[in-house]
Fold:
Amino acid sequence: MHGKPLKESTITVQAEETGGTKEILMMNMAGVKLDNKDLLGKSDPFLEFHRLANGGSYQLLHKTEVCDNTLNPVWKTFGIPVSTLAAGNNNREILIRCYDYDSDGSHDLIGQFTTTPAELIACCTERGSKVFSCINPKKKEKKKKYIDSGKIELKNCQVVKQYSFLDYVFGGMQLNFSVAIDFTASNGSPNDPKSLHYIDPQQMNEYMMATYAVGNVIQDYDTDKLFPVLGFGARLPPDWHVSHEFAVNFNPNNPFCAGVDGIIQAYQQCITQVRLYGPTNIAPVIRHVIKFGEEAAKTNTANQYFVLLIISDGVITDMGDTMDAIVYASTLPVSIIIIGVGDADFKGMEFLDSDTGPLTAPSGKKAVRDIVQFVPFRKYALSSKASLAKEVLAEVPKQVTDYFKMHNLPPSIQKQDAQVKQ
Structure:
């Protein structure tokens, strides 16, 4: 810091215990004939939810999106945990403010009103809408004939239960792990020490290290620890045809390997028997796992979820088909992890990890949820295996819960709730 030292100051932190309920209040709200706060155009309204704290101040709980240029906004359905809203008291005051958005942050208050968690939950129970008058305190004070600055309508609401990843694990969900390995020629000849597939008796190559880092964590969520392992981009004996979906153990009827060590053993044997070729088509291995996801989805239970680990060194050559497969897989209990090995161009893989918005297939269909996580191996090569595994698996728990939530599927064995809370 430069200049004169600052005088002694304090920071006050307020905290309240919110309880362990898993219920979320889902709400759909709309504005009706709101006041116009803009000279050019119409207001850009958004809502803020504030809870009255024990000390008398208000705490911001939730903020909706901005609806541009309208006096009759309809906000997207949103959810607030009941425990956050009530903090143990369903009669606690909730202040809802409606603002007109300004890009410089000086948002104009359109109006506000108060309610309680109990009143909002009652609307869910009664299955009815409720209309609140939106009051601007300054206008009300100045104008004797002032009525309101528009209405805010709670169009519908629902109390739903929210379950964690561990709730589903303790509820009997099986996390089924599959591996797909790139056997294209761009990896380099396995006999060349510079090859990504070179088998060095003294140390593991990047394919083996990536498999160990992820497999050793995820296998703990799979009871039988038998993992199907597929390869793509190789010529196979005895006729040397090119395959983009083959069993690494050469047993298409039983492509399973026992544990992570079994995966590594099958890979080491396979690399000496195939001829690296190409191109890098990954849609076939994704569709292989999709078939199992389809069968699991038909049961309409939260018993099965599938995670496909794809390890590849380069540019995806069937991007259109891959995007189609991923968009379809987003409707199923499937997640895809892509680890890029080597130092090739991974822009295509990064594109599939669409964190900024839903992936859109060439057909125009959009993914209903984000199911792809891409990680460049060398970014974490000098870190511990745990660091790589943490980064690779970071999004899987949310992807699992998002799928089951989307289909309103609770854990199959809910009597475990008491254990989860402990």
About this structure: Residues 214 and 393 are 8 Å apart (CA to CA). The first strand starts at residue 23 and ends at 32. The longest helix spans residues 283-298.
